[in-house]
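S.,

Sequence below, as promised.
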Amino acid sequence: MKAVRFSAYGDFGVLRVEEVPDPEPGEGQLLVRVRAAGVNPIDWKIVHGASAQGPLAAPRGLGVDVAGTVVKAGPGVEGIEPGAELLGSAAPAFAELVVASPQALVEKPAGVSWDVAGSLGVVVGTAYATLGELGLHAGQTVLVLGASGGVGLVAVQLAVGRGLEVIGTASEPKHARLRDIGATPVAYGEGLEARLREAAPDGVDAVLDASGHGELRAGVEVAGGPEHALSIASYAEAQELGVRFHSGGGGEQTTTALREVLPLIEAGSFEFPIAGVFGLDGVAEALRESEHGHPDGKLVIEPGRPG
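The prediction came back faster than expected:
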């Protein structure tokens, strides 16, 4: 099969599309043909060597979100037949085939596109987990920093669906979308705290920082202290301000979140835009756009897409 791999940390020039042996599913595993795999910030952070303990001992791949069809099941897997369409988490997903745990996957509804299905795991799981950790209930107000990004957009819609008042920061061109899904948009930039206080005269009950671009301090002030905030975007800024940092959802919590969101997407009542689709030879371009651009939605890798 073909897979994107790299043998040293660095810029995106280290990435290669290589032919490697097809993986085999072990006990309790599935072999899945990848139809789509979502791009997440963790992918480019890994390439750059974030949290690396030293040089790579062997080539490694990328990608943790996946949607695809089952090729075969390993020993001990029951009730899942070849051809089953599933989505969730598996790594490394920027490849034609990936081995996955059935517990990390859920059935793909027919009305959800492959590109959307392959992009949901990390952002939906993270939004679900962080809202749960904030412990909010209907009638309270949450401030979502970076409300038009992947996690932010999902968090806004989950919060609105649970009866919360939502204020979200975003650039001006994205304010209409936030209004359409039930949030009050506030522009980034100088004077942010004053604009937040105007939008929420009584303050906010909690802050979810999905931005990581210096807005957290203003959010903490409006919330009345760091104990009311949680960041998924900037560990350094969170540590400086005494704010909890959350590394994202995972496992059973993510599959629970997916089962809540998928029917809403299929019914057309939950917005999840796709900003760009790339083949395996376009992974470097996709990661560069994810890190330095401002994509208006998720970026997706389709291993079967022609170069």
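Residues 2 and 19 are 5 Å apart (CA to CA).

Coffee later?
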